[in-house]
Write a structure and sequence with these properties.
Oligomer: single chain
CATH superfamily of the largest domain: Butyryl-CoA Dehydrogenase, subunit A, domain 3
CATH class of the largest domain: Mainly Alpha
Largest sheet: 4 strands, mixed
Strand content: 5-15%
Structural class: alpha+beta
Number of domains: 3
Strand order of the largest sheet: 1-4-5-8
Bound molecules: flavin-adenine dinucleotide
Length: 385
């Protein structure tokens, strides 16, 4: 298979690093629902997680396409970047909207791995996709905000020092637009954990280290408010295109892993005295997934090109996420079907990757909500919600 290579040295380096974390490593983490600490430490040590942090703050100052290449290769190698990918996109909000003091205080330590910014608290149990309906509040008294409420699906909270949190600072009935009155905070969870912050893990169908978190008058210094009070929704939105672009790269990496695994198994496995891959019924779903993956890859490159040229490409980032998640899922389905019964056996890794792949039809944004975005913002149809 030929792919136009982009950042080939980075891709080679990541692929080499991933060789130390074979299927057996991920199987064990999955069985125990354990955080892949050694894998994240290796990525951190090699500098990959600081790729997007500017040199002035100790990072590598690489462009978004390098971040995408890193995450894609992790997934293509059969590993899973979900344990640490948030650092790449949450950090963007701090970079764009944080104060110089916040950047100097946190980014160098994030870059050298001594501080982890892996958690992102937006979703709540009652508001779901309707973010502006969130109920978590932050009340200011002097130089401190006090946060009360709950978040759900706050992934990696147990394995992060910092949490980027969206909370309401002005009640919804006191703002002109419901998108106003929300604020972003950089919460240092080390100070408040097990006091005014409680973290409870949620077991899921895949190993994702996700949690629900509860705040009970949790103090946050006003110095940790990101940007201006009340403008947080805009700050969170501005980071979402980067998140969608990076997640698309992971989906494409997974699609490549499934396609390579399926086509090689189809060539080896003999039934009725011939390779199963000789049957068009086996070939076609794999070839179809390959076509979808290549189309998604082109859209991702277009999104990256526009992003790196200084635009904020909402249409292309959403299209890339939609197409890449669909290609990934088509490839997952073809791969499992090609493996027949062995697709269900843990040692082949297919069932694990299959479970992991399903998430991207729902998170970080569901397929329906991307289609709504395209209908409303690209095709000028009326807003549906
Ligand atoms: C494993 C995992 C990890 C996650 N990690 C994080 C994290 O770290 N931080 C964080 O903040 N969030 C996280 N999330 C939350 C994730 O972003 C949401 O689950 C996702 O955005 C969907 O929201 P919801 O679950 O509330 O679904 P809901 O909003 O309840 O929607 C349920 C279904 O209805 C559909 N739907 C809802 N409204 C409409 C509409 N108007 N038109 C058409 N269809 C509609 C949706 O597409 C969806 O399929 C995570 C979720 C999971 C499962």
């Amino acid at each position: 298979m030929k792919y136009e290579l982009n950042h080939p040295e980075i891709r080679d380096g990541v692929a080499k690093l991933c060789k130390d974390f074979p299927g057996s490593y991920w199987q064990q983490c999955d069985r125990e629902q354990a955080y892949p600490t050694a894998f994240v430490a290796a990525l951190t040590e090699a500098g990959y997680l600081s790729a997007l942090i500017p040199e002035d703050y100790g990072g590598l100052s690489l462009p978004m396409s390098a971040g995408a290449a890193i995450l894609e290769e992790v997934h293509r190698a059969g590993c899973n970047a979900a344990a640490c990918h948030a650092q790449m996109y949450t950090m963007g909000t701090v970079l764009r909207h944080g104060s110089e003091d916040q950047k100097r205080r946190y980014l160098p330590q994030i870059a050298d791995g001594s501080l982890r910014l892996q958690a992102f608290g937006v979703t709540e149990p009652t508001s779901g996709t309707d973010t502006t309906a969130l109920r978590c509040t932050a009340r200011r008294e002097g130089d401190t905000y006090y946060v009360t409420g709950q978040k759900i699906w706050t992934s990696r909270a147990e394995h992060s020092d910092l949490l980027l949190l969206l909370a309401r600072t002005t009640p919804r009935d006191q703002v002109k637009k419901k998108t106003e009155g929300l604020s972003v905070f950089l919460v240092d969870m080390r100070d408040v954990r097990d006091k005014s912050l409680t973290i409870r893990p949620i077991r899921t169908m895949m190993n994702h280290a996700t949690t629900e978190i509860f705040f009970d008058e949790m103090p946050v210094p006003a110095a940790n408010l990101v940007g201006e009070e009340g403008k947080g929704f805009r700050y969170i939105l501005s980071g979402m295109n980067a998140e969608r672009i990076l997640i698309s790269a992971e989906c494409i990496g997974d699609a490549k892993w499934f396609i390579e695994k399926a086509s090689s198994y189809a060539g080896e496995r003999k039934v009725f005295d011939r390779p199963i891959g000789q049957n068009q019924g086996v070939q076609f779903p794999i070839a179809q997934a390959y076509a979808q993956m290549r189309a998604a890859e082109l859209m991702l490159r277009e999104a990256l090109r526009l992003y790196e040229a200084g635009n904020n490409p909402g249409e292309e980032a959403n299209l890339a996420k939609l197409l890449a998640a669909d290609a990934q899922w088509a490839a997952a389905e073809a791969c499992l079907q090609t493996h027949g019964g062995f697709g269900f056996a843990e040692e082949f890794d297919v069932e694990r990757k299959f479970r992991e792949a399903r998430l991207y039809q729902v998170a970080p944004i569901s397929t329906n909500l991307i289609l709504s975005y395209l209908a409303e913002h690209v095709l000028d149809m009326p807003r549906s919600y």
